[in-house]
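ugh ok fine here u go
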Amino acid sequence: MDYSVKMLLSEYSSVLEGYSGLLMLRLMNLCVKSNPVSLLPVVIEHPSGDLPIEDVADVSIPDDDHIDVYPKLEDDIFLIGKSILQTHPEFQMSQETMKNGDDEMHYLRFKMPEVDKNRRDVLTQAVDAFYEECKQQLNQTKVKFQPQLTEKCARLSKEDADKAKDDFDNTFKANTDVAKDTVESKKKEIEDAYQRYLQKKATAEQATQEQKAAEGEDVKSQLKMPTE
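structure:
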């Protein structure tokens, strides 16, 4: 295949992958489950200059609902917490303590917000908005590169021209499929989290009702008059 066609297809693929990758990154930052990727946009406003979080802290994921952040220097703990909450104000932050030999080590724990109906709706709307923007970007990229490919293919053999056009179409389909799968996966993640919220709420309400019922029975028992 002609070198210039290969270069054009490579550039085309790179642009498409950039847009589908950006969509993936954006959806990861719509936090439902804890994910270290959500801290990538965090910039620590440090006296020595703006720093990425990996320069000042270590991060661990103890479970799906929490992110633990361990400052490399304890004096930075306030700056780290402030910067993370500026990026993700929806996080709930607490300062925790753990033993480090004979010393105590302080670190920050961030809890993911519960997905109630309102948050489910907000997250879903954001997913749809990002998806629509991505689809427009992918389509605009195809429209931009297609005339250039057609012009170059006019100088190729029919076999090479057909292969170049197939590669062009397959690359577009692959990236649109990635975008679609990413969105479907995120929506399932949101819905699963919402169902866990409903189950947790129902369990709490049932426990409250059972407690009230038990208290009511206890009152009735105390009010019973002696039979003799």
